[in-house]
Amino acid sequence: MSEVPGSVLFVCSRNGGKSPMAEGLARAFAPGATFVSAGTAPGESLNGESVAALAEVGVDISEHVPQLVTDEMIAAADVVVVLGEQADVQAHDGTPVVRWVLDEPSERGVEGVERMRLVRDEIAERVRGLLGGPTSGSAVSADATDGTVATHDIEPIPDADPADATVVRPINPYDVDEHGEDTVEKLPTRAGRRRATHPMTPSLRAVVTGASSGIGLATVELLRAAGWDVFALARRVDRLEELAARTGATAIACDVTDDASVAPAVARVTADGPLNAVVNIAGGALGTDSVADADLDRWRQMYETNVLGTLRLTRALLPSLRESGRGDVVVLTSTAAHDTYPGGAGYVAAKHAERIIASTLRLELVGEPVRVIEIAPGMVATEEFSLVRYDGDAEKAAAVYAGVDAPLVASDVADAVVWTLTRPHHVNIDSMIIRPRAQASNTLVARN
Predict the structure, then answer these.
(1) Which of 107, 218, 219, 288 sits most deeply, having the most CB atoms within 10 A of its CB?
(2) Residue 202 to residue 182: CA distance in whole angstroms
(3) Which ranges constitute the DSSP H helices of 160-258?
(4) Residue segments in the chain with a per-residue pLDDT below the cut of 50
(5) Residue 133 confidence (pLDDT)
(6) Which domains can be identified in the chain, with CATH numbers?
(7) How many angstroms separate the Cα of 392 from the Cα of each of 235, 286, 302, 395?
(8) What is the pTM of this model?
(9) Running DSSP on this structure, what letter comes out for residue 408?
């Protein structure tokens, strides 16, 4: 399977409904690639309503037999997609693992085939995004007024040569270019290979800062797994090169606090065409000084990185984002941008200022094809944030998370970033605050 230029393993718990639906839709959309589905606790038979819902759009999964996911399947896949929250899969050797938490219509009282139609349509849209964006195809859509579902046949090209495979998938009118042309189909692989089918507009392109560790690194991984071309920016070249070798991202050394470093990075990023997203993650906290004992040099450094770094790169890339006709500015702030806490004034002040950049820019760009998105995470246990804040004191850094039941991790926040970027482009997630369940505010955290 790994010799095929694009192989995806879909996993759910029973392998009787959602993962076979994803496999069937993916096979219809991209006949030349390899798709497999399996379950962590497979049942004995398929969900008949899933079979019926796919049959309505010309996809036959009736011959599928639920099977147990194996280590060999995971190791052979270029991307592993876990559907729902019940299944758990461990990655092998850097294989990207993406979790799709799907809407559950039964929670709204929608049951039977109607429920599976809605599930089918969401999975179809997710698969479409995974495979790299829309191409021409037939629509599967729900009527917003009465909940009925209009379906049109989605038919794979019969006897398609994998080298010339035509991708057929639900079309999203917000994702074609201004001439109505299809976008390039690109499927990510662990080695960074690319498989393109269909004409000749670029795939979506993103810049991610702070990419050498933590949330920035996790965002690069998930965007690459979702089919984006990603420019990974950070100061530590050795880490960037390892990330690029593993994911296929493009590594660019860049210090966002330095004009002389940012200028060549911007030139490199924009050399091959317009950009679709800049994800500003570079930042951080230094110390826990009180206002009375504030270290002005640390305050100045936090402002330079969190505020002026975001401003410098966003300002430089804004013309390219506008030119793309589908631009996004993502600003990773913090819950510190929305409230304060003792000992945090320097970081809080910087993050408040960074948030205001996003809020003001959104007003200034209204009516233009550029979204401005703020993501504000709370307690996130990464390998470096608290360690840097406490000048390398590992004991103090560990105490930040001591006794907390499941703080957020970098991939939780990266998942939110990618989710906002992959909404239809008329949908703007202005601001999203994300905390672990154990954290109610900046100052109230449940600890064992």
Answers:
(1) 219
(2) 10
(3) 214-225, 237-247
(4) 1-5, 134-202
(5) 52
(6) 7-164 (3.40.50.2300), 204-434 (3.40.50.720)
(7) 19, 11, 17, 9
(8) 0.59
(9) B
